[in-house]
């Protein structure tokens, strides 16, 4: 079943076309990886799907509903079913790990403190972290911060998880671990994962399906093995075939 469908999406910034009639369809439960060179428009595309940017034209269907005409309060309801791991983790430096991970539950629910802390411990253990509740983000490594950001994203039991460049700026060995974690969390929790990255190695490692964004469109889509073998010169140029 298709959970996200984008149809003929257009977006320009001060006359410069970034998205130019883009189409895609993401199936429920899959890990869909959008690759493309830096500046191709990957983050911009992600922000449209999350409803943070309004397109010039086009349709963005999420859970069967076009979100483009929705008012902010209806968009918020949709966003509650999303988890987002932003580039660079975006943790609050002045909050402890427990406060960071439990942030949504502390702010938007009436759950008791012990209940929230239990849930925080549960999601931290899902990402392989223990005994760091009272630490601050500054004392963690980049890889651990990424895990904390992931724990924060899954605490609301989202249907779809979005990742923007999840392994950028992480050393190669940790990168492999984070790739593995993203893949496993998606499968274990039955979540649809949408990853944008310029890192081809990560993409091959993570993806059920790879989509190549170039010139404002998805110009190729397929299994990692299909993308790797593609005869399309625009694809082989990017994947170095
Ligand atoms: N708010 C903005 N205003 C104007 N141009 C923007 C804005 N955000 C992004 N762009 C431009 O859109 C293009 C795509 O950006 P982006 O989606 O961030 O690329 P990617 O994530 O693939 O590296 C870039 O050329 C960037 O300069
Ligand atoms: Mg980007």
| Structure annotation, total helices | 10
CATH topology call: Rossmann fold
**CA-to-CA gap between the ends?**
32 Å
Question: Biggest sheet: strands side by side, in what order?
Answer: 6-7-8-3-9-10
CATH homologous superfamily grouping:
P-loop containing nucleotide triphosphate hydrolases
What pattern of helices and strands is seen along the backbone?
A: EEEHEEHEHHHHEHEHEEHH
CATH architecture: 3-Layer(aba) Sandwich
Overall mean pLDDT score?
A: 94
Instruction: Give the overall shape.
Output: globular
Total number of beta strands: 10
Q: Major sheet, described briefly?
A: 6 strands, mixed
- The gyration radius over C-alpha positions equals 18 Å
CATH class: Alpha Beta
Report the portion of residues in β strands.
Answer: 25-35%
- List bound small molecules: adenosine-5'-diphosphate, magnesium ion
Structural class estimated from helices and strands: alpha/beta
Number of domains: 1
Low-confidence stretches: none
Query: Helix amount, in percent?
Result: 25-40%
Give structural notes.
The chain has 241 residues and is of the alpha/beta class. It has a single domain, classed as P-loop containing nucleotide triphosphate hydrolases (Rossmann fold, 3-Layer(aba) Sandwich). It has 10 helices and 10 strands. It has helices spanning 42-50, 72-79, 97-101, 103-108, 113-126, 142-154, 172-189, 200-206, 224-229, 233-239, and strands at residues 2-13, 16-27, 31-35, 57-62, 65-66, 82-85, 160-164, 192-197, 209-214, 217-222. The protein has a 6-stranded mixed sheet, sandwiched between helices. Helix 5 crosses helix 6 and helix 6 packs parallel to helix 7. The longest helix has 18 residues, at 172-189. The protein is globular and about 55 Å long. The protein binds adenosine-5'-diphosphate (ADP) and magnesium ion (MG). Magnesium ion (MG) binds next to helix 1.
């Amino acid at each position: 079943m298709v959970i996200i469908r984008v149809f003929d999406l257009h977006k320009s910034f001060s006359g410069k076309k970034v998205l130019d009639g883009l189409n895609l369809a993401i199936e429920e439960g899959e890990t869909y990886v959008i690759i493309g060179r830096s500046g191709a428009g990957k983050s911009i595309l992600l922000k449209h799907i999350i409803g943070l940017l309004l397109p010039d034209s086009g349709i963005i269907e999420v859970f069967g509903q076009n979100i483009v005409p929705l008012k902010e309060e209806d968009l918020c309801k949709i966003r509650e079913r999303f988890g987002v791991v932003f580039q660079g983790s975006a943790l609050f430096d002045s909050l402890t790990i427990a406060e960071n991970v439990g942030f949504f539950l502390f702010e938007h629910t009436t759950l008791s403190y012990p209940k929230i802390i239990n849930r925080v411990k549960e999601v931290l253990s899902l990402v392989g972290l223990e005994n760091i509740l009272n630490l601050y983000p500054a004392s963690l490594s980049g890889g651990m911060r990424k895990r904390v950001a992931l724990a924060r994203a899954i605490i609301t039991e989202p249907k779809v998880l979005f990742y923007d460049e999840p392994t950028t700026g992480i050393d190669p060995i940790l990168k492999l671990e984070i790739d593995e974690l993203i893949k496993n969390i998606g499968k274990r929790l039955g979540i649809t994962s949408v990853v944008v990255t310029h890192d081809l190695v990560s993409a091959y490692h993570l993806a059920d399906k790879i989509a190549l964004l170039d010139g404002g469109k998805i110009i190729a889509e397929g299994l990692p093995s299909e993308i790797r073998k593609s005869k399309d010169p625009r694809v082989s140029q990017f994947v170095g075939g």
